[in-house]
Amino acid sequence: MKFVDEFRDPAKAQSLLVEIRQMVERIRPKMNRPLYIMEVCGGHTHAIFRYGIETMLPDEIELVHGPGCPVCVLPMGRIDDCIAIAERPNVIMTTFGDAMRVPGSKKSLLTAKAEGADVRMVYSPLDALQLAKANPDKEVVFFGLGFETTMPSTALTVLRAEAEGIRNFSLFCNHITIIPTVKAILDSPDFQIDGFLGPGHVSMVIGNEPYQFIAQHYNRPIVVSGFEPLDVLHGIWMVLKQIDEGRSEVENQYRRIVPEGGNAVALDAIGKVFELREFFEWRGLGSIDHSGVRVREAYAAFDAEKKFTMPAVMIADPKACQCGEVLKGIIKPWACRVYGKGCTPETPMGALMVSSEGACAAYFRFGDIEKIRSRRVEAGIEEASA
Amino acid sequence: MSVVDPDVRTEKPVRARLSAANVTLAHGGGGKAMHDLIDSVFIDSFDNALLETMEDQARMSLSALMRHGDRLAFTTDSYVVSPLEFPGGDIGKLAVCGTINDLAVGGATPLYLSCAVIIEEGLDVELLRRMVRSMADTAKAAGVAIVTGDTKVVGRGACDRLFINTTGIGVIREGLNLSVSSARSGDAILVNGMLGDHGATILNARGDMALTTPIASDCAALHGLIEDLLRAAPGTRFIRDATRGGLATVLNEIAVASKVGIDIEEAQTPLREEVKGFCEILGLDPLYLANEGKIVCVVPPGEEQTALKAMRAHPLGSESALIGRITDGRAGRVSMQTVFGGRRIVDMLIGEQLPRIC
Ligand code: SF4
To answer: Which of A44, A162, A190, B249 is deepest in the core (most CB within 10 A)?
Structure first.
């Protein structure tokens, strides 16, 4: 694992920061407001907080922590459905650890487990398939979620289940896709993002081509970046360089991993098993067209939505939630009415408080809010609170 | 030091033989089967005069206790780790070291332990014997005696193979008052070596992740190290073993109780490459991983170098490090200078659902 240190070198970080400051100095007079850079991916949010990257940047750069945490954006109704399946006798519900804490309208999977439902944490969908083989008299359901990053392994698991004729395995599919969501953000009337950090892991699968519209139609730079702190800083540097030079292009900072065309095998598996839904509901953002996938008819035998009946009720986010505004960068998390009051990581009201990749939870856990705010007040970006 | 005089007995008594290969409910029934189990597995291994009297309670002389100090330290802990055996230790060793450490971090000389076991019906007797031997060996090496105990057998599914509770008694010498609320701005924060080994080992040994990382638990009895530290740095304010919740949790406890700020440096925090890599893959934060042989010490300015030297001279502290300072920053806040040069808050862990690690 030694190699990672190369991507955490503080000396390299300092030299990037010097150039970042110079560029900001040049850009700032033209803007007359902070520069907003959105990282689309929860992995970036995590790295930014884990390494305190925001504390190193000039005040004029605002990082907007985007919708990239798939656990956070799941709407309550879907969680309720998942719990309804989990609470059936004879069902073993399996999922990733983070998903167990997401609150539904009444409870989370973790609570359901405490009440007696058989809910188990797995590290890969293949573990769930293994569990199905070991428990032929039980129905094993995998609560699949995530962007294109986790989609291939879920798809391959369904293909394997089919090939091996395992009938007691099914997938409750909540996979979502990143592009329509970025587009929805770009189209929203209060949109004010100057550039994007593109999601490295997603791009490993889908390649860089799908982001072209951001650069071409919306004239915003996007840099697909890795997840080491130096990657993130370098990505920010590349976005600024484009702004400074008046360019808007799709650039690849994460060349060591992301192939231009994506991963054909993974894309093939996704295409075989999944098809786009007409729309999918996102917590905090509402319904977005073509932003989710479902299991194709050919694999209906493995589709939990077909196998089980469930309430399928849409549940609106609590009124006080301002997740949507935070997601779009209109307000900072601590400006939300309920931040730290009704909404904390222990009792999340909104999506962004749920996993450590959610912007609100990240600030709550890692961010020195007082310090950030006083700096912002000094820089004239935020008003001093009463 | 051994507190029970081994010469009280003249010859080793003949033990009942246990023929069963697995523990059954009968072994908890109170009859002959139970006596055979206790006699052949427990008494034989623990092998001390106090236990051998077979009274319902251990009796110890107050005046002998008072030779060690002026206050009794009394603590209890239950051990439910899964798997029972793991690289670097097993539940038996853990149950002895854990309770010894809980005494020792208060400055107490650990003296006596109790051992209560809850066994799930069907447990392999050989495995039980191994665990009990491991307890006995660990206690012997640490100079403490296991002097009373209890055995219960429960039906299949009522517990997971083997649970152990140990209660410990120690004595604190006069004048020593370690307290979590005594940290002052400028104090140094020391740890006695690589963090997170136990937590990573257990997660790894559970096999859920299919990683073959060569890590072993740091499970160890730390009273010797603590004794050396207190001798070298008599002004030491506070010591706590960083078990569940890891370093981050202990630091938060200190910051809250002492109403101080804490600044640590990631670059100074000892972490094995293997543990770092393991955490990287699983998205864990090693600062929160459990330890079973690591202490966090708060030492006043001026004593940190002698403290560090004494700790490093002990075999269980050769990789000791000064990781940060108590500050007059915001009370209750722990922050860390990251290796990358940024700064972040190190908060209390929120309801993470980790498997049973101790
Ligand atoms: S504080 Fe809670 S409700 Fe408000 S934006 Fe954050 S997650 Fe949403």
So the answer is: A44
Peptide bond into A136 cis (omega under 30): no
Query: Residue A96: its pLDDT value, please?
Result: 83
Residue matched to tokens 């601590």: A334
Whether pLDDT at A5 is above 70: no
Q: How confident is the model at residue B352 (pLDDT cuts 50, 70, 90)?
A: low
Closest residue by Cα to residue A196 from A249, A144, A127, A146: A249
Higher pLDDT, B201 or B354: B201
Pick from B244, B213, B219, B214: nearest CA to B91 = B219
The answer on pLDDT for A370 being more than 90 is no
Which residues have C-beta within 8 Å of that of residue A230, sequence separation ≥ 6? A6, A7, A8, A9, A12, A13, A16, B340
Residue A368 predicted with pLDDT over 80: no
Closest partner residue to B343 (CB to CB) among A55, A100, A370 is A55
User: Among the ranges A155-159, A187-191, B54-58, B278-282, which has the highest mean pLDDT value?
Assistant: A155-159
Ligand 1 closest atom vs CA A354: 7
Instruction: Tokens for B121, please give them.
Output: 């019906």
Choose among A222, A219, A214: nearest CA to A196: A222
Token pair 């152990």 is found at B164
- Token pair recorded at residue B82: 């899964």
Output the CA–CA distances (angstroms, integers) from residue B119 to B24, B98, B159, in the order listed.
Answer: 9, 20, 7
Q: Check if B32 contacts A (Cβ < 8 Å).
A: no
Task: Note whether B304 and B322 are within 8 A (CB).
Answer: yes
- What are chain B's domains? 25-172 (3.30.1330.10), 188-345 (3.90.650.10)
- Rounded to 5 degrees, φ, ψ at A105 are -70, -30
Q: What domains are there in chain A, each with its CATH number?
A: 4-69+181-252 (3.40.50.11750), 76-178+262-307 (3.40.50.11740), 323-378 (no CATH)
Distance separating alpha carbons of residues B355 and B326, to the nearest angstrom: 32
DSSP letter assigned to residue B40: I
Q: Tell me: the pLDDT tens digits for B4-42?
A: 444 444 455 566 567 788 998 888 887 888 888 888 888
Q: How far apart are CA B327 and CA B176, in angstroms?
A: 24
Average pLDDT along chain A: 87
For residue A16, the one-letter residue type is L
Q: Which of A354, A360, A349, A355 is nearest to A326 (CA)?
A: A360
> Which of B327, B337, B340, B350 to mutate to test binding with chain A, by most A CBs within 10 Å of its CB?
B340
Report chain B residues whose CB lies below 8 A from the CB of A8.
339-340
From residue B281, alpha-carbon distances to A1, B84, B213, B218, B285 in Å are 10, 25, 11, 21, 11
Per-residue pLDDT of A178-218, as tens digits, reads 888 888 888 888 778 899 999 888 888 888 888 999 999 99
How far is CA A386 from its chain centroid? 34
Q: Where are the beta strands (DSSP E) in chain B?
A: 71-79, 85-86, 89-90, 108-120, 145-154, 162-172, 188-191, 238-241, 261-265, 295-299, 321-327, 334-337, 343-345
CA distances from B171 to A317, B114, B225, B235 (A): 57, 16, 17, 19
A and B: number of Cβ contacts within 8 A: 75
- Nearest residue of chain B to residue A229 (CA atoms): B340
The answer to whether the CB of A333 is under 6 A from ligand 1 is yes
pLDDT in tens, B219-264: 999 999 999 999 999 999 999 999 999 999 999 999 999 999 999 9
Distance from the Cα of residue A66 to its chain's centroid: 7
